[in-house]
Design goal:
The complex is a heterodimer of chains A (about 675) and B (about 325).
Chain A lengths: L8 H4 L2 H14 L1 H29 L25 H54 L2 H12 L3 H28 L2 H8 L4 H37 L11 H10 L6 H29 L20 E2 L22 E10 L6 E11 L4 E5 L6 H8 L8 E4 L1 E4 L2 E2 L5 H11 E4 L3 H4 L6 H13 L3 H14 L5 H4 L9 H12 L6 E5 L7 H18 L2 E5 L3 H7 L2 E6 L2 E7 L3 H4 L3 H9 L39 H5 L5 E2 L5 E2 L17 H10 L1
Parallel strand pairs in A: 1-5, 4-10, 4-11, 8-9, 9-10
Antiparallel strand pairs in A: 2-3, 2-5, 2-6, 6-7, 11-12, 12-14, 13-14
Chain B lengths: L3 E11 L4 E12 L4 E5 L6 H8 L7 E6 L2 E2 L9 E4 L13 H8 L6 H14 L16 H14 L4 E5 L7 H18 L2 E5 L3 H7 L2 E6 L2 E7 H6 L4 H9 L48 H4 L29
Parallel strand pairs in B: 3-8, 3-9, 6-7, 7-8
Antiparallel strand pairs in B: 1-2, 1-4, 4-5, 9-10
Helix pairs in contact in B: 2-4, 3-4, 4-5
Classes of the chains: A alpha/beta (about 675), B alpha/beta (about 325).
């Protein structure tokens, strides 16, 4: 299972309208709108200019040759007395048309070459790829000149030349994109289903690589325009009496010292049209590339950025006030109250974490469980102050070892978090820098936060690796992350957290990517570390059994809220919230009855963008009543520290008739 | 439905000098109408077996037989179909789910019949046929996995290979897919190779269990027997590592074994492949040097490949679901 803290908001909208919305969004950015407008103007001009001004552009007036700019001729006249401005406008059609023709040749040829490896099989494909590689390495302009000579000087030759010269780049691009798609499971599935190679290409590969290809073709058209102007200017392109911008530029150049405007006008036209194509392509590329901003924005392990934390205004909030976590003996290591994380969404702010409150005492092990999207990982990131922009973290109280993390800037807390707080992520491969040795990466922590010397820090790194039972620690400290197995990397990650003297380890699905035998080793290690130094642990996992095994207390999260906070040993049989019970029942274990269907939780988790006014679990709950859909229950403490947010806490779903919920009720009846 | 038989199958990746044997001389039979659960850790070659069975990966030795006939991957839907691990990448995001399923329906059908067949299949996997026009992005992970199942069934397969089909799903919906797999298997009598790293899941679905370690099958027998009376120390370790309730506490493994790393598939150890991690092998007992040098035979109970497994002749595997 993967921890996708992703908000599935984009997935809710139909695919096609999502794609359309994406293109529209591009036009809404300033650059996108400007470039789009400019491009539209240029294309419009290409269509209408010859109809409107060709008479003027071709009218020869020998009495008025080589004149400078005047009110009658804005940029003067040429050697035959024709109006240069009109000629520049009229030349738009030929210039743009030729550029587009050349681009089409490049795209079609490139696409054919790029997709050929998929159709030809392994050996033929390699041959084509090798050919394309050689062609890509060959300078484009040289290729164009070469083709211009082969095809003869003239318009056709130039179009073919520029088209052929652009093809290798497109071939390479479509090859790379197509190879990426061809590796996906749905292509394998289509092949197994007996879909032929050609149909796979047309039905599965091309639609999925279309967008980037269109973008690159747009940018390519800008390049072709410039290349064409260059060829015409050199006299290898358009020949008289036809004219394009390059040709006009050449004409104007002969008289540049007498009236420079005549040379400048076609130059400006080339620049404007080229810019229009390039900018539009870039804007679209950026727009398409940025669509993951909401979903992938807060994946851990990337370049993480600390955001501005802001004390939340007491009132003006629609979520019910969370209860105080209650008194706790001694000073808690972590004290969180009313923690919320908000992301801007298409239809107003989305809040995947809504008013979470809890405390962790010294040496205590607290687990957080919930389905993907319940906000459990985001809660951990918010505590570590690792929520990326544009996410915003608010809290009534956020204290770590008594220090208020809400006040002061990043610098104030960097040392505290750096030495007393350890974070272990799901995928240890992405949390280490692959280009640096493990030992050095660990040592860096001590150098940065404890001011150790390089040598002392490295010695401590080796010592820490030994303490997390990495065999041959001295030798392994000099190895790179890829030389470590998954379990060893996770140990090294924990070792990195132990470089300081942590009082809290936050482990976000630390064993999800590992095999069961290795998972056991890592969990044992966490338990040993905790016992040795009285370190508190916040263990986030989708696996109820793992949390129940390692932790003393369990927070159950649903739709961004804590719905139950209970002792771990009561998790299996004593849970009061129907969601907790359903979640526990849904885990198949080695004693599950083989003659019964597995208990499931009907329905799907709530979309964070559309939180219902009442209890978020009500639509899936076998106990739900009218009150549940209207009022959101607060997290209430029963006096012993056990907290539940449910109007029907502790009730057993015996005879309620909720369609689809029967299996859970059944299983609960058996287990209770 | 039919019997799928792997005979001495090896799959090698890479070239002669630098490569790895992901599957090494494996014999495995999926009997007619049975579900064989294949378990093992990542890198043990489970998924390579699946890909070899459907012809996505060429064999470097051995052969795969379907009802005694060598498998041929000619045009048209293949007789062995596969459901992939990740329902987010196994459906084309730009194709409606109806089209995805229809693609696997054998050709030569009128479009009205084809539509009807798609509706029937969607109903079979408990999805509303009216949603045939939906895109995968509109479905949850569990629903997508059901579409993938419908697509596999659309090809009228003789054997279905399910490769970790629940490991990308939330526990809360994993049950729906497993229940569906069991129901379909009972109704249709499909022979199935069910691959998973989760023993509890395999136990629920499979009638036989085969345990794989570093490209070799180390134990294979009826599910209840393998789980109730595991013979290979690796099977026992796997069982002990399943997170359960109240079974916490540090494992009492001999020093050296507890810290042992999974072996590198690029350089499998000589002799018994499990000996560098084995709690009853040479690390724990000095007199068991044989494990380092000699590859164990499989003439033990559950065809266990261990020198010290119960020396009982190979049990006849009936393959009928219990």
């Amino acid at each position: 299972m993967t921890t996708s803290t992703t908000l599935d908001a984009s997935a809710v909208a139909p695919r096609r309208s999502a794609a359309r919305a994406r293109w529209l969004a591009v036009l809404r950015t300033p650059v996108g709108a400007g470039a789009g407008l400019l491009l539209a103007l240029v294309l419009l001009l290409a269509l209408v200019a010859p109809l409107l001004w060709s008479g003027e552009a071709d009218r020869i007036d020998t009495s008025d040759v080589l004149q400078g700019a005047s009110a009658e001729h804005w940029v003067g006249t040429d050697a035959l007395g024709r109006d240069v401005f009109a000629r520049v406008l009229v030349a738009t059609r030929l210039s743009i048309g030729l550029a587009l023709a050349a681009t089409s040749i490049a795209v079609v040829l490139g696409l054919l070459l790029g997709c050929a490896p998929l159709l030809l099989g392994r050996r033929g494909g390699r041959l084509v790829t090798a050919g394309v590689n050689i062609a890509v390495a060959f300078p484009g302009l040289l290729l164009a000149l070469f083709f211009a000579v082969v095809f003869g000087v003239g318009m056709t030759g130039a179009v073919l030349a520029i088209g052929f010269a652009g093809a290798p780049a497109f071939a390479r691009l479509s090859q790379t994109l197509a190879a990426g798609i061809a590796d996906r499971d749905f292509v394998s599935a289509a092949r197994i289903a007996g879909v032929g190679r050609f149909r796979v290409l047309v039905r599965h590969v091309l639609p999925n690589i279309g967008e980037p290809l269109v973008v690159n073709a747009t940018i390519g058209a800008g390049g072709a325009l410039l290349a064409f102007a260059g060829l015409s200017f050199l006299g290898l392109g358009v020949q008289a009496p036809s004219y394009d911008w390059g040709r006009l530029l050449q004409d104007g150049l002969s008289g540049i010292y007498i009236h420079p405007v005549a040379a400048l006008a076609p130059g400006v036209a080339i620049v404007v049209a080229g810019l229009a194509f390039n900018l539009f392509g870039e804007a679209v590329a950026k727009g398409i590339g940025l669509t993951t901003a909401l979903g992938g924005g807060f994946a851990p392990g990337r370049a993480l950025r600390r955001e501005e934390t802001r004390r939340r205004a007491a009132a003006a909030d629609q979520t019910p006030p969370a209860t105080d976590p209650g008194p706790e003996p001694g000073r808690p290591v972590l004290d969180v109250q009313d923690l919320s994380v908000t992301f801007p969404g298409a239809a107003g702010p989305v809040r995947p974490v809504r008013g979470v409150s809890f405390r962790i005492g010294r040496g205590e092990a607290v687990g957080v469980v919930g389905e993907s999207g319940s906000g459990k990982s985001l809660t951990a990131l918010a505590i570590a102050r690792l929520v990326e922009q544009p996410g915003e973290v608010t809290a009534g109280r956020l204290r770590f070892q008594g220090a208020d993390l809400l006040s002061g800037g990043d610098r104030t807390h960097r040392r505290l978090l750096g030495t007393s707080f350890a974070m272990v992520f799901q995928d240890p491969m992405t949390s280490f820098n692959p280009t640096r040795r493990i030992g050095r990466q660990l040592a860096e922590v001590a150098q940065e936060h404890q001011g150790m010397s390089r040598r002392a820090a490295l010695a401590r790194a080796v010592d820490r690796l030994r303490s997390v039972r990495v065999p041959a620690a001295e030798r392994r400290a000099h190895q790179y992350p890829h030389e470590f197995s998954g379990g060893m990397r996770q140990r090294a990650m924990i070792g990195m957290g132990l470089m300081g003297e942590p009082s809290l380890i936050v482990a976000d699905e630390p064993t999800t990517a590992l095999d069961v035998t290795v998972q056991r080793q890592v969990l044992d290690l966490l338990a040993a570390v905790r016992a040795e130094d009285d370190v508190a642990l916040l263990l986030i996992s989708h696996d109820v059994a793992v949390v129940g095994q390692v932790c003393e207390r369990v927070l159950v999260m649903y739709a961004g809220r804590v719905v139950e906070d209970l002792p771990a040993d009561r998790l299996r049989t004593g849970a009061r919230h129907p969601y907790t019970r359903a979640l526990v029942a849904a885990v198949p274990d080695m004693d599950v009855d083989l003659d019964q269907p597995l208990p499931v939780i009907p329905g799907r988790p709530v979309d964070p963008a559309h939180q219902p006014p009442g209890c978020a679990y009500a639509p899936r709950c076998p106990l739900a009543s009218a009150r549940c859909t209207d009022e959101d229950p607060a997290l209430a403490d029963d006096g012993t520290g056990w907290r539940v947010a449910c109007w029907h806490a502790g009730e057993v779903a015996a005879d309620r008739d909720v369609p689809g919920a029967a299996p859970v009720a059944l299983a609960l009846g058996e287990r209770a | 439905m039919s019997e799928l038989r792997f005979e001495g199958v090896s799959v090698r990746y890479g070239n002669r000098r630098r490569g790895m044997t992901a599957v090494d001389r494996v014999d495995l039979t999926v009997p007619d109408g049975a579900v064989v659960g294949l378990v093992g850790e990542s890198g043990s070659g489970k998924s390579t077996m699946a890909r070899a069975a459907v012809g996505l990966t060429p064999l470097s030795a051995g052969r795969i037989l379907l009802d005694g006939q060598p498998l041929r991957h000619t045009s048209g839907p293949r007789p062995v179909q596969m459901v992939f691990q990740d329902p987010y990448s196994s459906l084309d995001p730009r194709m409606t789910i109806g089209d995805s399923v229809a693609e696997a329906v054998p050709r030569g059908m009128r479009s009205a019949d084809r539509r009807q067949e798609v509706a029937r299949l969607l109903e079979l996997v408990e999805l509303d046929p009216a949603r045939a026009g939906a895109y995968p992005g509109q479905l949850s992970g569990g629903q997508r996995q059901r579409v993938a199942l419908a697509r596999a069934l659309a090809a009228r397969p003789q054997v279905v290979v399910a490769d970790e089909i629940t490991s990308a799903l939330d526990v809360s919906i994993q049950g729906t897919v497993l229940n569906l797999v069991r129901r379909l298997q009972r109704e249709l009598g499909t022979s199935m190779l069910f691959i998973s790293h989760d023993l509890a899941v395999v136990r629920y679905v499979a009638s036989e269990i085969a345990v794989m370690y570093l490209g070799r099958i180390v134990e294979h027998g009826p599910a209840a027997q393998v789980l109730g009376d595991p013979q290979h120390p690796y099977t026992r370790d796997l069982l002990a590592a399943v997170p359960g309730w109240g079974s916490a506490g540090p494992a009492t493994a001999p020093p050296g074994v507890a810290a042992a790393e999974p072996a590198d598939p690029h350089a499998p150890p000589p002799g018994c492949r499990y000996h560098p991690r084995c709690p009853i092998g040479p690390l724990a007992r000095d007199d068991r040097e044989v494990c380092r040098t000699t590859e164990p035979t499989t003439d033990h109970r559950h065809a266990t490949a261990c020198h010290f497994a119960a020396a009982e002749p190979l049990l006849q595997v009936t393959g009928r679901p219990a």
